[in-house]
Each structure stands twice: as C-alpha cells, then as structure tokens.
Design brief:
By secondary structure, the protein is α/β, with parallel strands linked by helices. The protein folds into two domains: 224 residues, Spore Coat Polysaccharide Biosynthesis Protein SpsA, Chain A (Alpha-Beta Complex); 209 residues, 3 Solenoid (UDP N-Acetylglucosamine Acyltransferase, domain 1), CATH 2.160.10.10. The chain has eight helices and 39 strands. Strand 8 and strand 9 form a beta hairpin. The radius of gyration is 32 Å and the shape is elongated.
C-alpha cells in the first residue's frame, strides 16, 4: 500500500478581503499551508505530498518550495472537486490518498495518522474526518446512516440543511481519506448544480454511498485543530492559540516564560532549559536560543542563533545573526544580518552592527556603528566609534586585530587594517593602515589661548551696554 497526501491550496479565500492567496497568510510565523505541510511530512516523505496550486500559484510554490513537496496546477478554480481532478496525474502511483486543506494550520500529525489507520482498517472508499465544535454554523453536516452509525450517507451543506437536519452537530472538516481507484472511477459524476457553479468534493460522500461503496467517518479528538479561518479575526484567533501552544511546549521543556500570553514566539523557535523569557519579547522565524539565557522585555530576535548563558537586555533587535556563549547584548542594541558576536563579548547601548564578527571578549559598549568589520579578541571599541564602510558606490571592510584599543569618537575609513595591539587616539579619523603595537592619532593640535573666554565675555557686555544707550 502506497499512501500519498494531497493538500488543496489553490483557492483565493475571498472572504478574507485580502489581495494575498489565503494559504499565504501567516500564523505562528509561517504561511498557513506550511503548517499543514509540516504535519503531513511527519506521516509521509515530502516527495509523497502533492500541493494543488492555482490562485497566485507562483507565490505559493515559492513559499513552500524548500519543503521538497511536489505540485499540481489547477488552472481554473472551479471548486474542491475540480482541484482533486487536477491531481489525478500526480497521484497515479498511490493506492490510498489523504486530502488535506491548506488552511487548517492546527492539524496534528497524530490526527492524520488516526484518519489513515481507521480508513485502512475499515477498508473504506472514503473516510471523512469530522468534529463537533461548540458552534457548527457555517459548516457542512455529516449525515450518518443510521444516526450514530460509522457509515455516512452524505454531507449536507449549511444552506441545504432541511428541518430534520437542524439537530446535526457533527461537521465535515474538509479532510478526507480515499481509496484512489474508487475516487477517480466516480469523480466524473460530480456536477456544478449549485449557486457557485463549482464541483464540490463533499458530494463524493453521496456519490460513493449511492454506488454501494463504504463511506466512513471518524471524529477528531479536538475540534479546534480541524477548524480553518475564513476571516482575519478567525485567523488571529488561530494565531493566538498556536503561539500559546508553542509557549506551553517550551515551558514543558524547562523554559521560564514570564506572562506567556504577552510573548510572540513563532512555531519554529527552539529554546533551551532554564532560559528566562520576559514579557513582550518576540522570538521569530527559526531562532535557536541556548540554555541559561535571559531575554529581557521588548527584544526582537529573528532567525538567529544564541548560545548558552547569553544575556540580552531590554529592547534589542537581532536578525540573522549568531551570538556565542556568555555574550551580553544591549540594552537598545541592533544586530543586523550577518553578525557573529563571539564568546563573552559585549555589545552595548545604542550600538549597531552589520556583517560584523566580534571576537572573544571584545567590547563595544556605547554609541557605535560597526559595519563590514572583522574584529579580533580582546578589543575595546570606544564610544562613538564608526567604521566608515561606504563611499557612496561600494562597501569596504575594516580589519581590527587582537588586543586593539580604539579611542572614543574615532572614525575608521575603510578599507583599513588596524594591527594587533595598536592604539587609536580618541577623536581620530584613521584613513591609513596602522601597524601592530603602534599609536595612531589623527586630529588637529590643541591650541590654548589664556584669557580668551574672559575677554570675549567682556566684549559682549560692552556691546550690550552700548545698545542700551541707543
């Protein structure tokens, strides 16, 4: 038995009132469809997952291409049944199919497995994953025959409910398992006799039942995981639930999250035990945080790797960077992409860095810009230092050796090399390479004029007195 998974991701999602395809909207830091792919990929290899694309097909493919899935194109969006027809060629190697919706991001792999196992056990032509939410309004209802039985006679859409159906609370989740041969031998019987003139996959339940095939249903353990989002408000509700679930997963693994309802942690984030995350922190993308760290409030860390025992103070912004063990960052520091902050190094108040490597034990504690720089170990960068890396046309590197001392308010005009152990005098503008162990001073000579300030004050008082007489 070969099992394939088909994910429907071709629709527009017009009820969202958005220009973006529905499945590209994000919750938990990932597009909706990527959450579904992640769950499916824990059941079958990615090459056995076929994503049906249509509306904004190129954008959807670009968003998930790194997952290794395959694609089928629904050229014209004429309903869910028509979408599955577009997948016929791409599913010919499989005996059984599971069909998922690309907008159900809370679906768990365990639920897919339960659907698969029940479907195979019952030797069904079609198995429907159902749920009983508190409010079933708007969803199609599952009509079992007889009531309470395992077998299903049809799925009745909300608008088609008859008085005798009003008490039905079991809904169709839009997630199915099919015996492929039965599905495609009968799918041609679908018709567009409805107000939207579309082919509905839900009609396969009635068609297969009427053909004497076995149509079954199994309830999801948690209704919330199979509910989609048809409005932005509903999507944000799912986002909140997913982020809280992520926070609880981390706390169960030993992470201390103060006021977890206030933090924003993406689903792909991993954090080591005994790390403390303070309120209003954002950990985004595929960020990795080590153990015994402290991330203080209002910091935003995106797609970065943070080693053990790192202290990140308030209101730091860190993107696509690496911070090694024992480093101290902030407060109010900004690490732009491409930074590597070495072990036990310090990046302090109002320091900005971009494509910079700071060696072990080095410090830039105040009011500094470091761009396109390679800085050795044990270096002290004084307050107000700037690496002048851009000449208006191209960018150049600054190389600073081990043990260098850079005095405050210095400008290092790249390309430039500061040799090991060198000293740069405060207030210098350095335009030439500095040899190892040298002192470089580049500033105007200080001139002192005794009594100059006293004389200037006297002149100003005399001018005021003259003006008053006029």
């Amino acid at each position: 038995m070969r099992l394939g998974i088909v994910i429907m991701a071709a629709g527009k999602g017009t009820r969202l009132k958005s220009k973006r395809a529905k499945v590209l909207h994000e919750i938990g830091g990932r597009p909706l469809v990527k959450h579904v792919i992640a769950a499916a990929a824990q059941v079958v290899p990615p090459n056995d997952i076929l994503v049906i694309v249509g509306h904004q097909a190129e954008a959807v493919q670009a968003a998930v291409r790194d997952t290794g899935v395959r694609f089928a194109l629904q050229q014209e969006q004429r309903g869910t049944g028509h979408a599955i027809q577009a997948a016929e060629q791409g599913t010919r190697d499989y005996e059984e199919l599971i069909v998922l919706s690309g907008d159900v991001p809370l679906l768990r792999p365990e639920t897919i497995v339960a659907l698969r196992d029940f479907h195979l056990q019952e030797q069904a032509a079609m198995t429907i994953l159902t749920a009983e939410p508190a409010n079933p309004f708007g969803y199609g209802r599952v009509l079992r025959t007889p009531p309470g039985a395992l077998e299903v006679a049809a799925i009745v859409e909300q608008k088609a409910l008859q008085p005798e159906h009003q008490g039905l609370r079991e809904i169709n989740s839009g997630i199915y398992a099919f015996h492929r041969a039965a599905l495609f031998s009968h799918i041609g019987q679908l018709n567009a006799d409805n107000m939207h003139r579309e082919l509905y996959l839900t009609d396969m339940a009635r068609i297969l039942h009427d053909a004497g095939e076995r149509v079954m249903a199994i309830k999801a353990a948690e209704p919330e995981e199979v509910l989609g989002a048809n409005t932005i408000a509903e999507m944000m509700r799912l986002d909140r639930e997913l982020r809280l679930a992520t926070a609880h997963r981390l706390m169960a693994a030993g992470v201390i999250i103060l006021q977890p309802e206030t933090v924003m942690i993406d689903a792909g984030v991993e954090v080591g035990p005994d790390t403390v995350i303070e309120p209003f922190t954002q950990l985004l993308g595929e960020t990795r945080i080590g153990s015994d760290c402290r991330i203080r409030s209002y910091s935003v860390i995106e797609n970065s790797t943070v080693g053990d025992q790192v202290f990140i103070l308030q209101s730091c912004v860190i993107a696509e960077s690496q911070i090694d063990k024992g480093a101290r960052i902030g407060p109010l520091a900004h690490l732009r992409p491409g930074c590597h902050i070495g072990e036990d190094s310090h990046i302090g108040n109002f320091v900005e860095a971009k494509k910079t490597r700071l060696g072990k034990g080095s410090k830039a504690n105040h009011l500094t810009y470091l761009g396109d720089a390679e800085i050795g170990s044990g270096v002290n960068i004084g307050a107000g230092t700037i690496t002048c890396n851009y000449d208006g046309v191209a960018k150049y590197k600054t190389l600073i050796g081990d043990g260098v001392f850079i005095g405050s308010d210095s400008a290092l005009v790249a390309p430039i090399v500061i040799g090991e152990g060198a000293y740069i005098g405060a207030g210098s503008t350095i335009t030439k390479d500095v040899p190892a162990d040298a002192l470089a001073v580049a500033r105007g000579r200080q001139v002192i004029k005794e009594g100059w300030a006293k004389n200037r004050r006297a002149q100003r008082e005399a001018m005021k007195a003259g003006a008053g007489k006029q």
